[in-house]
Structure formats: structure tokens, C-alpha cells
Amino acid sequence: MNPGTLTSGTLTPGDLHARIAQLFIYPVKSCAGLALQESLLTDTGLEFDRAWMVVDAQGNFVTQREAPQLALVTPQFKGDQLVLRAPGMLALYLNLYEYEGNTQVTVWDDSLPAFDMGDLAAQWFTDFLAQFESKVSTPAAYRLARFDPEQQRLSSLQWTAGVQAPNLFSDGYPLLVVSQASLDGLNARLLASGHAAVGMARFRPNIVLTGLQAHDEDRLSLLRVQAGLNEDANGVQLKPVKPCARCPIPNIDPATAQSSPAVGDTLQAYRQDDRVNGGITFGMNAITLSGQGAVLRVGQAVMADLDFG
Predict the structure, then answer these.
(1) Which residues have C-beta within 8 Å of that of residue 206, sequence separation ≥ 6?
(2) Which of these, 13, 5, 20, 25, lies nearest to 212 by C-alpha position?
(3) Cα dihedral 167, 172, 176, 181 in deg (nearest 10)
(4) pLDDT of the residue at 136
(5) How do beta strands 38-42 and 45-46 pair?
(6) Mean pLDDT by 10 residues, the chain (309 residues)
(7) Which pLDDT does position 140 carry in this prediction?
(8) Is 79 exposed, middle or buried (0-12, 13-18, 19+ CB in 10 A)?
(9) What residue spans define the domains of the chain?
(10) Bridge-based pairing state of the strands 175-179 and 207-210
């Protein structure tokens, strides 16, 4: 049987067996993540992942690269509202389906229309980040943008082999998949070098898998998740397409927003990847081939095919 064939009632056999150990979304790009027990899979990844984004006065995206304190902004859903909290700030309540104006934003090489979340949200982020700009005579002004679902922002067709994979405000792909064993391997190296172990939050994945060996995710051609309508069909197929090249964000402690080079230095010693011109990689960016509308849940079985190409 072709290992990619959809069947009814059972998962098609695969080279590797795994399970979903954790699910995360990051409602506001570069702010703290939210661990979920289940999440709706949409055309653009997990529902509400990177649906909002902080921008500067020119509409350019702002991340922990420029403002590491964004790691301290924590999200929570309450009914039809997204609630944001940060140290020293009153909670900010945002309606999931409302906005106050239109704007133009830029994220990496993409410039596109978006929704502006209004002056209250803008002042909230400006005031919060101003606490860390004490040496600047005029603190920067920030605004919060919401992705306009009428817009289409596609992953690189070169890496997706021509498959159109839309994103919201992610760095470029709908999903990021990491195995727990990969983090365990990194932590073993950190501990051996006298550094503290780190948590998965540093790497901002959407799907964390158990049952794989370290960096097996690098070698997978297809993931089939037991998440069909009857929870046992093969309807969800995810394809890893590009190694996730790492910037300095994994060096930032999400609990304190303080940066130290230990994680990056350790990865540098063993995670240089020729597929991205020798860049440091950790985890795989993935796209959805089928299964939009299914619910992914912690504990679901995953069959994976190895790429022997």
C-alpha cells in the first residue's frame, strides 16, 4: 500500500510512530505562547496562531529580536476575547473578531493590508515597551495589527515544491514541528557544559512530538495524524518542507526576557545545516496537505514516513 494513501478507520502504516505531546499557539507574534490541549487546524496553521502582530510607527513588524520583553506578554482566551497581560500593566482585552481601522504592515519581505486594533492597544504596547527604553529620550511608538483574512501570504513555493501554503504573521510557514528528543539532546549538551537546561518555549513550536529520536523530524517526508472525523482516519497530512533556521531568539529566557549565548553557542557546535547554507537549525517548518478543519489534540497518534531521498 502506498504509505501516503488515505484510508478509513485506521492510520496507514508508516516508518515511525509518534504522538503529539504538546500543542502551542502564539496569538501575538513574538509574545509568549499558549499551551493547548486541542486546536483547530486551518489553512494557515493552528487557529489564531500569529493572528496579531506588533508593529512600529512605519508598520514594520517587531519581534523579540528588537524587543525581547515581548516574551513577557502572555495571552489567554476568554470567550470571544484575547486577554494580554504583562508585568506592571493592566490586562488588555481584545475582541477576537473586531478591529478599529485599516493599516499597512510589513513582515519580512511581505507588505500587505491589515487591520489596526486601535489606540488603546497601541498605547498599551507603547507604554509596556517604554519601560525598557529608559535611555531613549523619545520612546518608540507601537501599534497592534490583526491579519486580514482576505489577504493571502504564501510560504516559499521553492520550499513547498509549488504547493500554495498560506500563513498569517508567522515567519514563513504555517506550522513548526519539533521532537521532544531534540530538546532532550540539546539539554544534555548544555548540562555537560555547565549550563542550565532550557524549556521548549525557547523554540516556539506548534507541534511537539514524542516517540522519535533526536532530530528525526529533519528526515520526515510526511506526517499523518490520527485526527479524522472519527479520530482514527488518515485525514490530516502534514509535510515538513524546510529546516527552521534559528536567529538569537532561543537565547532569550522567556521567563525573564534576558539573553545569554549558551543555547546558540551549543547549537552552533552540532546543528549547522547545509540545506540552509550552513545555518543553525532546530525543528522543521511544515505545511498542511490535507485535514483543514480537523482538531489536533495532545495524545493523538502520528505515523511518519522517512525521506530516503
Answers:
(1) 23, 24, 25, 45, 46, 49, 175, 176, 177
(2) 20
(3) 180
(4) 57
(5) antiparallel
(6) 35 84 98 98 97 98 96 98 98 96 97 98 97 73 97 97 97 98 98 98 98 96 81 76 96 96 97 95 97 96 86
(7) 84
(8) exposed
(9) 16-306
(10) parallel
- DSSP assignment string, 69-128: GGGG-EEEEETTEEEEE-TTS--EEEETT--SEEEEEEETTEEEEEEE--HHHHHHHHHH
Grid coordinates representing 46?
A: 493552528
pLDDT the model gives residue 271 = 97
H helix or E strand, kind and range, residue 267: helix 262-268
Cell of 286: 511544515
Backbone dihedral angles phi then psi of residue 182, each to the nearest 5 degrees: -65, -45
Decide: 228 and 236 in contact? Cβ < 8 Å: yes
Q: Is 218 helix (H, G, I), strand (E, B) or coil?
A: helix
Single pTM value for the model: 0.93
Which helix (H) or strand (E) element contains residue 282? strand 279-290
Give the per-residue pLDDT at 3. Answer: 32
Question: Which option is the CATH number for 16-306: 3.40.50.300, 2.40.33.20, 1.10.340.30, 3.40.50.720?
Answer: 2.40.33.20
Give how far Cα 75 sits from Cα of 50, 177, 309, Å: 12, 21, 41
pLDDT for 267: 98
* Radius of gyration of the chain from its Cα atoms, rounded to whole angstroms: 19
